[in-house]
Amino acid sequence: MNHVVAESIHCDAAQAGWWAAACPSPDPAFACAAREHQGQLTKPPGSLGELENVAVQLAAMQASATPAADRVWISVFAADHGVAAEGVSAFPQAVTGEMVRNFATGGAAISVLARALGATLEVVNLGTVNDPGEVAGVRRAVIAPSTANFCVQPAMNDVQLHAALEAGAHSVRMAVEAGAQVFVGGEMGIGNTTAAAALACALLGLPAAALAGAGTGLDNAGISRKAEVIDRALARHAHETSPLRMLACLGGFEIAALAGAFIAAAQARLPVLVDGFIATAAALAATRLNPGCREWMLFAHRSHEQGHAALLEALSATPLLDLGLRLGEGSGAALAISLLRNACALHNGMATFAQAGVSNA
């Protein structure tokens, strides 16, 4: 690697392929007990809708009769994309590096939400064209200033891909050591809705028009241009048929880091709350690399970004919120943490019919 990696990210042959190691399954005995408990609470069965399902899922994931979402770890991965050279974003590429500093100094949306939640916020710089340098509160894991332009060549070589996957796994190890009960992955990178759409199109066998959206605010002409760029990239890399190669050719450092984090979280029995369009594209890639990780995913919201609904459907996912969000950063997932906490509070705190002396149906 020509660029200095500011922390130790080892990608030797002994580590390569860790993402394929088996994931445990959530504990079915705790799921069964949680469902039975829900049926005894002072409410009509099913009347709390998806909140009941969330509580049952968390109980099984945490192997606990009293599931919780009090200790939340949020990792925001930032990286730039070579495809930005194709004019696919309404914002200049310098914004990525500038936002890294904004995350760290507390001015970004996810920074505000993390403070409100009392969550741990980790910012990880994987490589930006406008490098902010050493910034307090930012973990430097720089792979390169950006990926390559995937209209010309693969976005990442194997060493870069493995480094990005490992960066995500490293964040999960930190979260586990900190006692996190839920992991949230966020992202920042000008051009990353293009990369996410291209990757998802390749994984799902869809044309660009099905998934290309406004991203940072493109008009209809800009969206059409983005779709044309994606279709060119899909044609160039059409011979790649493995999910790993698709991720290398069409993804981004932060998208690969998210995929690695989601797999590592499942391997560590840590529930994941998936954010919006880009995070869901990473989740789709993660499930193609390791299908067992799907059982450890909850889905925060349905993004306003075109194509997110198709990704949620492909993952058989039921999102908790539909607020027209399309910011990224993990912001939608941060908002949904309150629903997880309330689902747990209801599950753990409501009286049963017997305890309250209330007649059951």
Automatic annotation (TrEMBL):
CDD domains tied to this protein: DMB-PRT_CobT
Metabolic or biological pathway, per its Swiss-Prot or TrEMBL entry: Nucleoside biosynthesis; alpha-ribazole biosynthesis; alpha-ribazole from 5,6-dimethylbenzimidazole: step 1/2
Q: Which residues form a coiled coil?
A: none
Q: Name one Pfam family in it.
A: DBI_PRT
User: What molecular function does GO assign, one term?
Assistant: nicotinate-nucleotide-dimethylbenzimidazole phosphoribosyltransferase activity
Domain of life of the native organism: Bacteria
| Residues annotated as the enzyme's active site | 329 (proton acceptor)
Catalysed reaction equations from the record: 5,6-dimethylbenzimidazole + nicotinate beta-D-ribonucleotide = alpha-ribazole 5'-phosphate + nicotinate + H(+)
Task: State the top-level EC class.
Answer: transferase
- What is this enzyme's EC? 2.4.2.21
Q: InterPro entries under this entry?
A: Nict_dMeBzImd_PRibTrfase (IPR003200), Nict_dMeBzImd_PRibTrfase_bact (IPR017846), Nict_dMeBzImd_PRibTrfase_N (IPR023195), Nict_dMeBzImd_PRibTrfase_sf (IPR036087)
* Alphabetically ordered keywords of this record: Cobalamin biosynthesis, Glycosyltransferase, Transferase
Q: Which SUPFAM superfamilies match?
A: Nicotinate mononucleotide:5,6-dimethylbenzimidazole phosphoribosyltransferase (CobT)
What this chain does, per the entry, is described as:
Catalyzes the synthesis of alpha-ribazole-5'-phosphate from nicotinate mononucleotide (NAMN) and 5,6-dimethylbenzimidazole (DMB).
What family is this?
Belongs to the CobT family.
- Protein's UniProt name: Nicotinate-nucleotide--dimethylbenzimidazole phosphoribosyltransferase
Give the organism, scientific name.
Lysobacter korlensis
Q: Which gene encodes it?
A: cobT
